Amino acid sequence: MKNEQPRRTTIHDVAKAAGVSIATVSKALNNNGRMQPETRDRIKRAAAELGFRPNALARGLLSKRSFTVGLLTNDAYGRFSLPMMAGVSEALVDHGVSVFLCATNDDPALTHLHIEALLDKQVDGIVFSATRLDRRPHMDLSSLPIPVVYVFAEGPPGSVVIIPDDYQGARIAVQHLIDKGRKRTAHITGPDDYRAVRVRAEAYRDLCGGDEPVLFGEWEESWGHQAVDLLWSRDQAPPDALFCGNDQIARGAIDALRDRNIAIPEDVSVVGFDNWEIVAEQTRPPLTTVDMGMKELGRQAGLAVLTLSKGQSMSGGTRKLPCSLVVRQSS
């Protein structure tokens, strides 16, 4: 017995159901041309009821767009790129735009290969993201014939750049500890060659002064443990709060405090940075931390590349999005 596939609904079917011409259907579904709002609504309703899906190739030929965008990232683990991609996709899905994720693994040759592939696919634009704010792509993207938006990364002068506000994020973390009555907050953070590390340290010093040190180290739990040993080995009163540069450092610090039978948050409050949920929620006690809003960064980048891909103007420069504090039981 022959298995017959159901016939695909065509634009002719929509035109017949709505009682209009094929040209009118095309204008209504592409939101252009002049017609009564009731007519446009009737056509869209008929298309939805019939399950009509416009041919992507034909739509691209008419609009001179492919309705695809590339997300180019050097984040091989997905810690930053996956929530950002969710945000980019959320911004674009209602506009019929799909996203290609390309991981470069910080390899210049692979970066070049991905860019060539995206250009071959005639994507409408590229969103470039990195794992640190002061990282640029391995090749100059400003000469590409399509718009490029930089998110959680550094872009060339005049480009559209979207990053979290690290200074504001650090301030709300430290202010939270001050509001909890903490008088001696120390800052344990990552390498000082990171711009974000220096910006957060500046915010910390602006609120706390220089009575307690800023300890620079690695983005690892072991550094958090080591830093606590350093702070508690001094010949002075230990801190009653720790502001940590990421959640891994914070978890290491909490483990070290528990090894010393120091109660958290009764004796020492701890706040991290990143809101990496798999770390923050599994820390004991669960970690209060700063959320950089990676998904919202991606959403705003998606809207920006969509605007530029339509040929609309958009002012360049760096846009900083506010962070938020996720309060759990460590503070």
Structural key phrases:
alpha/beta; 12 strands; 434 Repressor (Amino-terminal Domain); 41% helix; Rossmann fold; 17% strand; 3 domains; 331 residues; single chain; 6-stranded parallel β-sheet
| Count of discrete alpha- or pi-helical segments spanning 4 or more residues | 12
> What percent of the residues sit in helical stretches (DSSP H or I)?
40-55%
Assigned CATH class of the largest domain = Alpha Beta
Strand content: 15-25%
Number of beta strands: 12
Structural class: alpha/beta
Largest sheet: 6 strands, parallel
Order of helices and strands: HHHHEHEHEEEHEHEHEHEHEHEE
Low confidence ranges: none
Distance between the termini: 69 Å
* Principal-axes shape call: elongated
Biggest sheet: strand arrangement: 2-1-3-4-5-11
Radius of gyration in whole Å, from Cα?
Answer: 26 Å
What's the quick description here?
The chain is α/β, with parallel strands linked by helices and 331 residues long. It has 12 helices and 12 strands.
General description of the model:
- By secondary structure, this protein is of the alpha/beta class.
- It is built from twelve helices and twelve strands.
- The protein folds into three domains: 11-54, Orthogonal Bundle (434 Repressor (Amino-terminal Domain)); 68-164 and 294-322, Response regulator (Rossmann fold, 3-Layer(aba) Sandwich), CATH 3.40.50; 166-291, 3-Layer(aba) Sandwich (Rossmann fold), CATH 3.40.50.2300.
- Strand 8, helix 10 (247-259) and strand 9 form a beta-alpha-beta unit.
- The model has no long low-confidence stretch (mean pLDDT 89).
